[in-house]
Design a protein that fits this description.
2 copies of one chain form a homodimer. Chain A is α/β, with parallel strands linked by helices and 385 residues long. Chain A has 2 domains: 273 residues, Rossmann fold, CATH 3.40.50.1820; 93 residues, Rna Polymerase Sigma Factor, Chain: A, CATH 1.10.1740.110. Chain A contains 11 helices and 14 strands. In chain A, the strands form 4 sheets. In chain A, strands 1-4-8-5-11-12-13-14 form an 8-stranded mixed β-sheet, with helices on both faces. In chain A, helix 2 links the parallel strand 11 and strand 12. The two termini of chain A are 31 Å apart.
Chain lengths: 385, 385
Amino acid sequence: MAFLKSSVGIVEPKDFRFGLDEADRLELDCGRALGPVTIRYETYGQLNARRSNAVLILHALSGNAHVAGLHAPDDPKPGWWDEMVGPGKPFDTEKYFIVCSNVIGGCSGSTGPRSVDPSTGERYNMAFPVITIADMVKAQQRLTLHLGIEKWLSVGGGSMGGMQALEWALSFPAMVNSVMPIATTSSLSPQGIAFNWVGRQSIMGDPHWAGGDYEELLPDKGLGIARMLGHITYLSEESMDRKFGRRLRAQDRYSYDFDKNFEVESYLEYQGQRFVDIFDANSYLYISRAMDYFNLADRGDGDLAAALSGVSCPFLVVSFSSDWLFPPEHSRRVVRALRNNNVDVTYCEIKSSYGHDAFLLEVDVLGSLISDFLARRLQEVEDGK
Amino acid sequence: MAFLKSSVGIVEPKDFRFGLDEADRLELDCGRALGPVTIRYETYGQLNARRSNAVLILHALSGNAHVAGLHAPDDPKPGWWDEMVGPGKPFDTEKYFIVCSNVIGGCSGSTGPRSVDPSTGERYNMAFPVITIADMVKAQQRLTLHLGIEKWLSVGGGSMGGMQALEWALSFPAMVNSVMPIATTSSLSPQGIAFNWVGRQSIMGDPHWAGGDYEELLPDKGLGIARMLGHITYLSEESMDRKFGRRLRAQDRYSYDFDKNFEVESYLEYQGQRFVDIFDANSYLYISRAMDYFNLADRGDGDLAAALSGVSCPFLVVSFSSDWLFPPEHSRRVVRALRNNNVDVTYCEIKSSYGHDAFLLEVDVLGSLISDFLARRLQEVEDGK
């Protein structure tokens, strides 16, 4: 019923500011406090009178608050999950009030390392405190209070967004009616930590990085390499075989040089170049570090089920068969720990060849899971369960 | 019977030079010719009177001619496959005459990009011609003639060594009695091409690379990043989980900074730093590019079985279950194509958690396969089959 699925149209990002007083600042896991803090967010749909239909979408490493719609009529492309959010779409804006905010540490409107530190009048850069996934969620909780939402109908997201969803369940269990962690993990694997390390070394090794204090010359080479590397981990071997194979670029012959000769090389270079236009190198450092430190089991002395013992709301956990960055086994681990706590968990491993990127691409099957899950939650709330 | 397995002792590398005359130069796939060419090689054991017991070992990207033994009594460590080559070992030097040569394009004695171009009196650097796996093998064939060997009892190696083994079977079928491709592929996957691309961009993006003409300042940062990235692809998620998990370094707490905090970060940094002391950045470019261009099926117009139609000698093909860089399916593809040509193939997928590195680590089970395979080949030759 594609004709029912239209766009949310033109949307306007909003800013919420807090932490102007010292007492109101955000206390971070690292022991420091951050303030003032700006949270850039967008909303789609209407909050109902009971304030019971609010859904928080949480974005991944390179995402931002702009999930759906356009910022201007001539915007060349819509938000990053536009196929999922809108009237008649899985996050149905005719039923739900959808919110998404840019994470702290980010570079798309919320306070991050490129923001000006009011105490110095200069950019934080590497003086910005190292943040965690829990810190991101703590900032979102402030936004939640500001919006007058007592309890989210659901919080959900893919990849790092899924980490935040899990963190919500732990940090603020009374504020979530349900949780949807997608293509994610309860702790970043050593392989993930290793890829992040290499990406950061590439950024910090770029002479234009200049200890984080870049201004005119940007560490685009280093950031581009980090992004190209990331991209490889988001695809599967199968999807790369299908998408590129060993196909050569236009000239269709081995060039016997070091310029891009294979289509996959072209693709990576394009992705790397496009990314440096929209993303900041220092934010990449901080956000990837936050992912490294994510390990829910820490809160149960190494026992994930113990860490999740305060959780009782329903979960929808989704993984993708060919995702090797956040493999299905990581989701199954979460599911087992939740079931140990008698949590009502719907788990689905979607068969897909798209690798980790599947959470952005398998919108039909993922969408119908989410649509059903949200509808059931709304029904429960309306039934007063 | 570990007591029987002793070392080959002190070995001396030798150099073979050819291509001093224009007519004798090595004609390369790229259309250019290379000469003079030096091939650095080592031999272990004795060539028998019938010259029927010679085995050629082919090394991987970062390998060299020094497979076994020590170069000096105080050498801190032996050759790269010392557990496999020696008296009583799988490549038994009491039975076989073992040869290994450094590939052209390399940086361990054979002619490569850092060699002096006699026509200019300066290092080739990026003026060095782009070489292929077939070019490497062609140079090895010259060494073979020089050594007076008409037919190898076997040629074999792991990873890029396995590519060369396969190439031997295609390029010089009359000169091999058997072939042992291990943890390899008949064509580098787009994922492999992509990782190589990122590694090369990292080297070529290092300002010390200087278009390849580095002298005092070396592109160690770029090369180190390429190596760290490579290392991740050589391990499996399972082996990283076991070897490092999320363990922290000595201080055993989150440091909330960007220095190495996890053990896996320390390990990668150490591997990267160690590598730049022993390997050359330009060689890394050339050798990784040779791997990109490797695709046996090209020689059968895309049909691997057709490409292998001239092959008839026995094969031992070995893969490792957790190798995701050269997955078992790639070996099975080779096996199917060989069997289509009625080739006698022994195929073994070794269950191992070590990933691609398994070909260097699973010496017991791999060793017994090789030992048996070589013994049967020697028996056949002695029986005059």
